[in-house]
Write a structure and sequence with these properties.
Length: about 190
């Protein structure tokens, strides 16, 4: 397995994960919302490219930072599961496209998806799974990499937890993938 696996171990994320795991209250949605925003931030902070524009005015120069207009960002996720975690994503990336995907993954529905049809070689794709614990992700990756000819460097996978066996299979098939998670679970 040669995957690039990044364990997100930011103290704030770890504290919120504990609150989610051990909480008995109804505030879990609030924690999911915050942890989703923080995790997406961790993935995007080195991936996003900004351009600085200088506007000369009469008495001063204004500096504006904007996203690179040649790049587009897409989150592919099952909104039924992940909606609480990505509700505020547009605060980080106002122009992001979010594509809902059901499981089991249906290749025909993938081909008919408006957002997935617009993906090109400048698109940056974040596949967001709460728990990476089944092999359906491989169908999605095969579609993106083989049918859409997307490069592995354009794709990142983000999940709260991931299964070790799934990671092994992904490592055999797509060894250059980048995966961000808070925890790897081994099933003995």
């Amino acid at each position: 397995m040669q995957l690039n696996i990044y364990i997100i171990s930011h103290p704030i994320i770890e504290i919120m994960m504990n609150k989610i795991i051990y909480s008995q209250s109804n505030n879990i949605q609030k924690y999911y919302k915050k942890i989703g925003l923080l995790m997406v931030y961790e993935v995007l902070r080195k991936w996003m490219k900004i351009q600085t524009i200088y506007i000369k005015q009469i008495n001063q120069i204004k500096e504006l930072c904007i996203l690179n207009t040649k790049e587009s960002y897409v989150i592919i996720t099952n909104l039924v599961e992940s909606y609480p975690m990505i509700t505020d994503i547009d605060d980080l990336l106002p122009s992001i496209n979010i594509q809902h995907i059901n499981q089991p993954i249906d290749p025909i529905k993938l081909q008919n998806s408006y957002i997935l049809q617009k993906i090109n070689n400048t698109s940056k794709i974040l596949i967001f799974e709460l728990f990476l614990n089944n092999y359906e992700i491989i169908k999605l990756l095969n579609y993106l990499l083989l049918k859409k000819n997307i490069k592995t460097s354009q794709i990142k996978i983000l999940c709260i937890t991931c299964n070790h066996k799934i990671l092994e299979k992904l490592g055999q098939m797509h060894p250059k993938l980048n995966i961000y998670t808070t925890k790897i679970i081994t099933n003995e």
